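Below is how a single chain appears once it has passed through the pipeline. First comes the sequence as given, then the structure the pipeline wrote out for it. We keep one example in the README because the format questions we get most often are answered faster by looking than by reading.
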Amino acid sequence: KAELRTAKQAKQAAMEKKVASSLSHGVSAAAPAAERAVNKALNKNAYDESDLVQQMEAGTIKLDKIAESDLPDELKALPAAERQAKLDKSLQERKQLRSRIVELSKQRESYLAEQVRKGKVTKTGFDAAVASALEKQLN
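Resulting structure:
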């Protein structure tokens, strides 16, 4: 995985996964998940301040300045000499995932726009409701 988590973050992620799995797996559940993924890919401030990989990328923290007791269990288990390599690998994976998310988001937007043009899908949700209300007011 491209991120190293504290126990608190792991618990939060597990809860988010549980909530997500309880939702229907239709388009309505997929759209917010896709939007969150894009937000995290594009918005570096979307990460929690305790995200070690993000802090390393931003240059706000150095591995040698972190107390052993504050390291995630995954890093504690590694010899000190291998920790930086692990973080570098995680950061590289995260960058690749961001690129892939942005690429897929563009494909998704293109696909959805095409489906709307073909009349196979109607726009729903908040954006569609606002657009519809504005159209009614303007006409």
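The chain has a mean pLDDT of 78.

See the next section for the split statistics.
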